[in-house]
Amino acid sequence: TVTDNNGGVVPDATVTLTNTDTNQTQKTTASESGFYRFSGLAPGKYKVTVEKDGFKKKVVDNFIVNAEQLQGLDIALEAGVISEVV
User: pLDDT of 63-75, one tens digit each?
Assistant: First the structure.
């Protein structure tokens, strides 16, 4: 789920998932409730980038995806200038 620092949902945020071993990327958009999902991922290390106008871009490096396991990653965005990276 994508939220702001106060716990409010951030709808329509762009979530980009990059497999750091293969450089393959997938993109999705968070729903009105801030929920996003990627399915059928190969096990490995991934980088997750979340962007939304009016918020600082958030990057999570080295997120490990294990085989046959459902995993979640909640992202909290900070309000701020778009060019700043957290």
Answer: 999 988 888 999 9
Provide the CA 74 distance to its chain's centre, in angstroms. 8
How many CB atoms neighbour CB 43 within 10 A?
Answer: 13
What is the rounded CA–CA span in Å between residue 70 and residue 57?
25
- Contact between 48 and 73 under an 8 Å Cβ cutoff? The reply is yes
Any residues with CB less than 8 A from the CB of 12 and at least 6 apart, and which?
A: 29, 30, 32, 52
Contact 49, 18 (CB under 8 A): yes
The contacts found for 24-33 with CB under 8 angstroms, 24 or more apart, are 30/1, 30/2, 33/1, 33/9
pLDDT digits (tens, 9 = 90+) for 32-56: 999 999 998 999 999 999 999 999 9
DSSP single-letter state for residue 18: E
pTM, full prediction = 0.88
Which amino acid belongs to residue 4? D
